[in-house]
């Protein structure tokens, strides 16, 4: 079966999901109402609450949720064969992620744009909200550690990416000054900025930077990890207009360019190339390398973003719901946002299963669990691009590696910024006031500590990935439980939320138990990850108990007013302010 | 031509949109501080510069109602300002 057929099947399933299932959800389950006064209008303040055109809002939502995670997860998970990964990404996007993202957006819109943490305080209980803070903290900490290792691997395996990756920071700084200080027109600045970035990619490809054995007394791997954390810390402290804003913008443009390049290459290579891409990976890999964990349940947590991710609920309820012009726009913004992320994962799967010449070459890349990952995406995708649009493989690899690193670096510095806020809030709970710099140093120490707990070169770094996925899925379970409680309170059938909830929760919990034994393996124990896993297991049980109690109570409560959110009194306003500050 | 303008407007929104909230909140914090400086004397905090800040009262009138609600006071804290 060729890559094109898989691409058509994947796109077909997602299109059916959008045109059929999301319509069903919008009409029958969430009952989206165009006449409902959304928080963006009701509470319009031009700051948090602002009605926004649905296409632009989708753009913001999509670029906020999409990053390196939907690339990393599927690129690792195809080690079990392409079929399970493809099924989980396509069906997961349609029945899990779309449902979840649309649901959290709807739930928040019906509740004055409250965040998912605040909703959990209202529908599941105060303990649920506290639990949410713990989960958010762990997810962010794990993601910065995992991404530091991902970027380090790419900078070593694709040395051509070193110049464009670090040069992109200078480009972003100049774009920021040009737009914010000099007030130049954005369009020419964008054209010049993106052109310079791509010129740097060409230069980087010609002048690869390979670090010597020892740099400042550190191995290349250790040096890159330290440099990345130093960058993340500095970037998270700078005013946002200086670096974060222009760099996010350039990345957003890059994201669309990358998607077009990937899918365009598959299409062109299949239609016009003399050697159309063939799938060399097995449909189901019966001979997985030694040490590879069992597919069930690990597949479901290895691919989190791209199938279902709790992080999306945070974005949907944190900012997107406050800008929704009409409630009916939620279908496009929320559900199609999930489809966008699914497409990125689908593109990744096509690259890592169809971008190699033979099964032997593929097996060599996937020699151990976590070995393929983003490097396989870069290599496979580069071969596809060479085949499809005729770009030399090395230059294509530099393009894709730069794209993946920029996504991961964005998540790293944003994650460090958010972690800093969590540390400061946690300190305030103990009546301590911590400044920006000490809080950032605490985050830096925690992040570096977790990364180096895997070895000074971050050797075991991607061992943390499934644990990150587990925590992310746990967050998704909590959001689905909130959606189910709201549906029950409104007297509607919660089955569309209950089925994904049960599957995601069971898989996440099972995966957490499964990993517990791997972290205590006498030949390769990891007590830091073991401790994190224990915390996750305890919080999982907690979530389950709280959610069951909340659902049982919901059945006995009188049906909730359809427009409870719109008609809530001033007291709810105060509650909203108080709790959203917590999250 | 209209489409071209719409494209440029969309691009601009794509740049500023995600950070609009952050910038406006920062500005709001500064404005709130200014509000306290201007209203200090009226709220019972001795202010040696009251003679001068009183002149600035008309400048903050418009935002007074939104400000007292935002800081958690549901009704006007000043008897002579009946905004709500």
Beta-strand content bin of chain A: under 5%
Mean pLDDT metric of chain A: 86
Radius of gyration of chain B: 18 Å
- H/E element string of chain A? HHHHHHHHHHHHHHHHHHHHHHH
**Straight-line N-to-C gap of chain A:** 47 Å
Helix run count of chain A: 23
Q: How many strand elements of chain A?
A: 0
Structural class, judged by helices and strands of chain A? mainly alpha
| Low-pLDDT sequence parts of chain A | 564-583
Largest sheet of chain A: none
Largest interface: A-B, 30 and 20 residues
Oligomeric state of this protein: heterodimer
Key descriptive features of the protein:
heterodimer, A: 583 residues, mainly alpha, 23 helices, 73% helix, globular, disordered C terminus, B: 84 residues
3D architecture notes:
The complex is a heterodimer of chains A (583) and B (84). By secondary structure, chain A is mainly α. Chain A is built from 23 helices and no strands. Chain A has helices at residues 3-29, 39-42, 54-65, 69-77, 82-109, 116-123, 126-157, 162-181, 186-206, 220-237, 244-272, 295-302, 310-318, 329-354, 359-365, 373-389, 393-429, 436-452, 465-489, 495-519, 527-556, 564-567, 570-582. The radius of gyration of chain A is 23 Å and the shape is globular. The N and C termini of chain A lie far apart (47 Å). Residues 564-583 of chain A have low confidence and may be disordered. By secondary structure, chain B is mostly helical. Chain B is 70% helix and 0% strand. Chain B has helices at 2-39, 50-70. The N and C termini of chain B lie far apart (47 Å). At the A-B interface, helix 3, helix 9, helix 11 and helix 23 of A face helix 1 of B.
Topology:
The complex is a heterodimer of chains A (583) and B (84).
Chain A: H1 3-29, H2 39-42, H3 54-65, H4 69-77, H5 82-109, H6 116-123, H7 126-157, H8 162-181, H9 186-206, H10 220-237, H11 244-272, H12 295-302, H13 310-318, H14 329-354, H15 359-365, H16 373-389, H17 393-429, H18 436-452, H19 465-489, H20 495-519, H21 527-556, H22 564-567, H23 570-582
Chain B: H1 2-39, H2 50-70
Helix pairs in contact in B: 1-2
